[in-house]
Amino acid sequence: MAFDSIIRGGTVATASDTFSCDVGIAGGRIAALGHDLGEAGRIIDATGQLVLPGGIDSHVHISQPSGPGIVMADDFESATRAAAFGGNTTVLPFCMQERGHSLRQAVRDYHAKADGNCYIDVSFHLIISDPTDQVLGQELPALIKDGYSSFKVFMTYEDLALSDRQILEVMSVARETGALVMVHAENFDAIRFLTDRLERAGKTAPHFHGSSRPIPVEREATHRAITLAELIDVPVMIVHVSNREAMEEIRRAQQRGLKVFGETCPQYLVLTEKDMEGLNMEGTKYVCSPPPRDVASQQACWEGLQQGVFSVFSSDHCPFRYDEQGKLAPKGRTSFRWVPNGIPGIETRLPILFSEGVVKGRIDLNRFVALSATNHARTYGLYPRKGTIAVGADADIAIWNPVREVVISQDILHHGSDYTPYEGIRVTGWPVTMLVRGEIVVDDGKLVGRKGAGQHLARDPVTPPKMTLAQ
Ligand code: DUC
Ligand code: ZN
Ligand code: ZN
Question: With a 6 A CB cut-off, is 318 part of the ligand 1 pocket?
Answer without folding.
Answer: yes
